[in-house]
TrEMBL record:
It is found in: Cell inner membrane. It comes from Escherichia coli. Belongs to the membrane fusion protein (MFP) (TC 8.A.1) family. PROSITE patterns: PROKAR_LIPOPROTEIN (PS51257). Residues 377-397 are annotated as: Disordered. Residues 304-366 form the Multidrug resistance protein MdtA-like C-terminal permuted SH3 domain. NCBIfam families: PRK15030.1, RND_mfp. Its main location: membrane. Residues 64-207 form the Multidrug resistance protein MdtA-like barrel-sandwich hybrid domain. One of its GO terms (molecular function) is transmembrane transporter activity. The lineage of its organism: Bacteria, Pseudomonadati, Pseudomonadota, Gammaproteobacteria, Enterobacterales. Residues 211-300 form the Multidrug resistance protein MdtA-like beta-barrel domain. Residues 379-397 have a biased composition (Polar residues). This is Multidrug efflux RND transporter periplasmic adaptor subunit AcrA. GO terms for cellular component: plasma membrane.
Amino acid sequence: MNKNRGFTPLAVVLMLSGSLALTGCDDKQAQQGGQQMPAVGVVTVKTEPLQITTELPGRTSAYRIAEVRPQVSGIILKRNFKEGSDIEAGVSLYQIDPATYQAAYDSAKGDLAKAQAAANIAQLTVNRYQKLLGTQYISKQEYDQALADAQQANAAVTAAKAAVETARINLAYTKVTSPISGRIGKSNVTEGALVQNGQATALATVQQLDPIYVDVTQSSNDFLRLKQELANGTLKQENGKAKVSLITSDGIKFPQDGTLEFSDVTVDQTTGSITLRAIFPNPDHSLLPGMFVRARLEEGLNPNAILVPQQGVTRTPRGDATVLVVGADDKVETRPIVASQAIGDKWLVTEGLKAGDRVVISGLQKVRPGVQVKAQEVTADNNQQAASGAQPEQSKS
C-alpha cells in the first residue's frame, strides 16, 4: 500500500508534464496554421487612354527624282551648274551647240514667209475671179480652180508655221534645263561630249529633298490588326492620319514629325510585309535619300487600354500568356489573356482582363490556383521593389 501511495504523486507529475507539453505543441501548430495564408503583391486593373506606337525599320527616298536627258543631239558646249548644289526648276544645266538648230529655225521662218506670200496671191486671185463670176470673162471652172489653189496655199502656210514651231522647240532644247527644283548630283558628261536625243544614260539626276519620303515595312498581320482596330473603334486617329516620328541611324530623334501617306496594295511574297510610306518636312536637307532610319508610328489612341506589369505575365509551354487573378474570396485563379504589345515594362492586354481585376505581380511562386492568399496592393512607388524582390523568391524555389 505504501508503495502505491509513493508512486501516485510521481505519476501525477508526469501526467501533468505531458499534458503541458501537448498543449504547447498544439499552440505552436495553431500559430503555424495561422501563417499558412501567403502574402502576394497585386495591382488592380484599370483602363486608361494610351497612345499606341510601333517602331518600324525604314529607308529614306527622294520626294521627286528627275533624270536629265537631252532632247536633241549635239556637242555639249558648257555645263552651267556645280555638282551637289541646290537648283531651281527651269535653270539651265547644259548648253548644246545651237548652230545647226538656229539655221533650221531661220530656214523654217523663210519657208513660212514664202508660203504666206503665195497664199496672199492665191486669195487675191479668188477675189478677182469672184467679181467676174457670171460674166463671159471667166468660167465657173476657172473660179473653182482659183479657190482650190487658195485653200492649198493656206494649208502650206499652216504646215510652214508648224515647221517653224518645231525648229523653235529644237533650238530651245539646246539649252538643257532642270524640270524640278532640288539637289543635283554629279554630271555624267563634260564639255565636248556628243549626246544623243533619247539616250539611255542621264546627263545628271536632280532629287527633291524637301519634303522627303520614308518607306517602312510592316508585317501583313500587324497591318490587318491595325485596320481592324481602327474599324471597330478600338483605336482612334486624329484627322484620319497617323503621325510618325523618326530616329536616325545615330540614335537622334529627327526634329520634324511626319504623317503616313499611304500603304502598298500588295504583300511581298518573300517577307510577308507591306510597305508604308510617310512624308517628312526636310527644310535643312539633313535627311538624304537612301539613309536607314527607324520610324515610330502612332497607330492611334486607345481610350480604354489595360496595362499589366510584365512580371505578372507568364507563358505556357505553348506560348499562351496567363496571369494569376485574386478573386473576391481572395482565392487565386489562372486567367488566360491576350498580350498584344509591350509598352515599356508592361504588356498591353486586349483580352482576358477587365477593370477591377486584381493581378498577382509578386510572390507568384508561393501560390497556385485555388489557394487563398493575403493580397497586398502594389503602388507605383514600390512596384519596382516588387519586381526586383520577385527574382530572389524564384531562385529559392
